[in-house]
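Sat 14:20. Reprocessing the chain from the morning session after the first attempt stalled halfway. Input below, unchanged.
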Amino acid sequence: MIASLLFCLAMPAQAEVQERLQEQYYDLQVAPGESLSRAINQASPIRQNGQIYHAYTRWQVQWNFWWREQRDGRCQIDLTRTRLNATITLPRLGGGDAQQRQRFEQYLGALREHEMGHYRIGQAAAAEIDAALLTTPEYPSCAELQQQANRRANAVLQRHVEHERRYDRETGHGRSQGAWLTE
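Finished this time. Tokens:
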């Protein structure tokens, strides 16, 4: 009995990261000979700050943690659960001739790869948040623990949001990865 109690007290905090990725599509029609770029621009629902984008990845990290309070009020995290929910929005081609469809498939592959880069940034954020929560030191009170743990998680989240902005700047929103239509 005492050995199993000591074992439970010595157990490290437990983590759980869950991921969910969905793809959604918007349809576009292209007539033979029509500019693929122009058709996607007209069909795309993705507009931000006066810009039209052909694809978009939205990710969100949510975290929960549970703590153990000592008799003297000290508090430490025992369990975390971090969730990454992401949606990638991509175009879906209807119509077009064989050359347009082939060009679209090449473009779509590069576009999807660029968007997966955004998703990987979200994955890194979720994993780092979970690790930051698990390594949050013990605090004199549970209120202080909660405040500091959330501060740590939000700082990690902000770094990854900035990483996403750099990623888009460095790749030209996927242009350097082949996600670019010249016509």
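The chain has one domain: 2-177.
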